[in-house]
Specification:
Number of strands: 7
Number of helices: 10
Strand content: 15-25%
Order of helices and strands: EEEEEHHHHHHEEHHHH
Structural class: alpha+beta
Helix content: 25-40%
Shape: globular
Distance between the termini: 33 Å
Number of domains: 2
């Protein structure tokens, strides 16, 4: 049987190999029988499967576990799904290569963190430099592997650093177009805007997010980000305007109340942060969809974009 990655799977393809369990939940079908709804992943993508006729009382496989699975890819409601024939948990001695199973950022996390630290060291504003460095210190070593999401954009090992450094590069370009923006403030907002996700998401060191934490569900990363910023401000002895501006940027970066921001961006650097965040998130989502879609074809519907994505052929004679 040919070896496929998840992004290569298409309808009617036979698959046998090792995949990582991103999530697994016991549910009931229309007849009241137990089954397990499971999402399986490798570093290229994710596919859903159902384990039917689950034995009552049997333990559900844990997220982050590796299984060996055999089945056929089918299509259900416009989405690919693996119809499982046989499966088992991976055992000692199995030829499992975790580097092939865990989605990872395309750059080394140490390099990305150094890029961020160097940007902060170049701030001309001493209060913003102290405050940003203190927040990074509070995040600690977990920042090296922490993902940016459970399923949406940058849902990968070191995804938070990937998202932040890409946004930082866009922000540098934006400053060239709009040099009247306060560069230190914009860069600080970019670096700090999502650090609250580290208390919002429950992730293992592979970058697999099993669920949202209590704080994540009750407060969310915008609110928790503000409290973390306040704690850092006390340690760094930063008060007044710089702190309030950064608080507003963290609170407003989702743009509107429908997406969690109680205030819209109310000054230029906050507005810039909002659109840089949206652009980087959507570009990453589209890149992921393109990677899973053959040239000349359309992806399945992408929930976060509410549309399908076309993978262009980029040739004059394309039909």
């Amino acid at each position: 049987m040919e070896n496929y990655t998840v992004c290569q799977l298409q309808k009617d393809v036979r698959f046998e190999g090792f995949l990582l369990i991103r999530s697994a939940e016991k549910r009931k079908d229309s007849k009241g029988n137990d089954y397990v709804d499971m999402n399986l992943t490798d570093r290229t993508g994710e596919i859903n499967c159902k384990l039917w006729n689950w034995e009552s009382g049997a333990e559900v496989p844990a997220g982050g576990s590796v299984i060996k699975v055999r089945g056929t890819v089918q299509e259900y409601n416009g989405r690919l799904q693996l119809r499982v024939e046989r499966w088992r948990l991976a055992e000692d001695g199995d030829p499992v290569d975790m580097n092939l199973l865990v989605p990872c950022a395309p750059r080394a996390p140490e390099d990305m963190l150094s890029e961020i630290r160097e940007a902060v060291a170049a701030f001309t504003s001493e209060p913003l430099r102290r405050l940003t460095e203190t927040m990074l210190d509070q995040a600690g070593e977990d920042l090296l592997w922490f993902p940016a999401a459970q399923r949406m954009h940058h849902a990968e090992r070191s995804g938070l650093l990937h998202h932040t450094t890409d946004m930082l590069r866009v922000a540098r370009g934006l400053i060239q177009v709009y040099p009247w923006l306060n560069a230190d403030l914009l860069f600080a907002g970019v670096i700090l805007h999502d650090l609250g996700k580290m208390t919002e998401l429950r992730s293992d060191r592979s970058g697999n997010v099993s669920d949202y934490t209590r704080d994540g569900q009750l407060l969310g990363h915008l609110v928790r980000g503000i409290t973390l910023l306040r704690e850092a401000a006390e340690k760094a002895d930063v008060h007044g305007e710089p702190l309030v501006l950064l608080e507003h940027m963290l609170l407003s970066h989702h743009g509107e109340a429908e997406y969690g921001s109680p205030r819209p961006p109310m000054f230029p650097e906050a507005e810039a942060l909002h659109w840089i965040d949206i652009m980087d998130a959507r570009m990453n989502t589209m890149k992921s969809a393109m990677d899973k879609t053959p040239p000349g074809a359309f992806s399945e519907k992408i929930f976060s974009l509410d549309r399908r994505v076309y993978h262009p052929l980029y040739t004059e004679d394309a039909e």
